[in-house]
Amino acid sequence: MTTSTSSTLFARAQESIPGGVNSPVRAFKSVGGTPLFMQRAKGAYLYDVDGNKYIDYIASWGPMILGHAYDPVVKAIQEYAAYSTSFGAPTELEIKMAELIKSMVPNVDLIRMVSSGTEACMSAIRVARGYTGRNKILKFEGCYHGHADSFLVKAGSGVATFNIQSVPGVTAGVSADTLTCAYNDLGAVQELAARHKGEIAAIIVEPVAGNMGCILPASGFIEGLRAICDAEGILLIFDEVMTGFRLAPGGAQEVLGVAADLVTYGKVIGAGMPVGAFGGKKEYMQVVAPLGSVYQAGTLSGNPIAMIAGYTLLSELKANPGIYKELEEKTSYLKHGLDNVLAAWGQPYVINQLGSMISIHFSEHPVIDFASASSANNARFSKYFHAMLNQGIYLPPSAFESWFLNNALNQADLDNTISATEESLSRL
Ligand code: KE4
Question: pLDDT tens for residues 324-341?
Answer without folding.
Answer: 999 999 999 999 999 999
